TrEMBL record:
Record PANTHER family: MEMBRANE-BOUND LYTIC MUREIN TRANSGLYCOSYLASE C, SOLUBLE LYTIC MUREIN TRANSGLYCOSYLASE-RELATED
Regions crossing the membrane: 15-34
A Pfam family that the UniProt record links to this protein: SLT
Keywords carried by this UniProt record: Membrane, Transmembrane, Transmembrane helix
Residue ranges of every copy of the Transglycosylase SLT domain listed in the record: 64-168
tRNA processing keyword on record: no
Name of the protein in question: Lytic transglycosylase domain-containing protein
Entry-linked Gene3D superfamilies: 1.10.530.10
Family in the record: Belongs to the transglycosylase Slt family.
Organism: Acinetobacter haemolyticus
């Protein structure tokens, strides 16, 4: 028979609470680290990771952070998509007609994203909205990136499209990791 006195119980209680306290502390520290991302820090990371000019990075970083917060999308993911889609060239236009930094196809997103898609604010806000929309339907950022590349219908339609979409998602995730390593 085991006999516990009040001192033993207090000690056991503390013993079992230590892992809980550590988990809570680490969670708070990691949340603080994520929320400490500000425009100058992101700008510096974009410059280092993607060789973007200081002027461009300084101009776009606040827009990325604001749009990411508004649509609840990780800001590093938005920055990585811009790197993948346009290499931070605001005037980019694809052969399929996708426009701007995040390569938005106007015919697909006209209702959700009115305005000039070459405008950096409109383009980043629209692209972030698209990512958030796809995340809600896909359930994961990896799959949402695939949808961003080939569309949800294209993703479901063929193995070839899913393969391309997964390859695209891996590429964006590499860009995100590269950016994160500079912060």
């Amino acid at each position: 028979m085991v006999v516990f006195n009040t001192t033993t119980l207090f000690t056991l209680k503390n013993y079992f609470l230590i892992p809980f306290k550590l988990i809570m502390l680490l969670s708070i520290v990691s949340l603080t680290a994520c929320s400490s991302l500000n425009a100058p820090k992101l700008s510096k990371g974009i410059q280092q990771a993607y060789s973007v000019s200081p002027t461009t990075a300084d101009r776009l970083s606040p827009i990325i952070l604001q749009s990411a917060k508004q649509h609840d999308v990780p800001p590093l993911l938005v920055a990585a998509v811009i790197r993948q889609e346009s290499s931070y060239r605001s005037n980019a236009r694809s052969p399929t007609g996708a426009l701007g930094l995040m390569q938005i196809i106007p015919s697909h997103w006209r209702q959700d994203c009115p305005g000039d898609l070459y405008n950096e604010y409109i383009n980043i806000n629209c692209g972030t909205h698209v990512l958030a929309t796809y995340y809600k339907s896909a359930g994961s950022w990896h799959k949402a990136l695939g949808y961003y590349y080939v569309g949800p219908t294209g993703y479901q339609r063929s193995f070839s499209n899913r393969y391309k979409a997964r390859k695209y998602a891996r590429s964006v995730e590499r860009h995100k990791k590269e950016l994160k390593s500079t912060l």
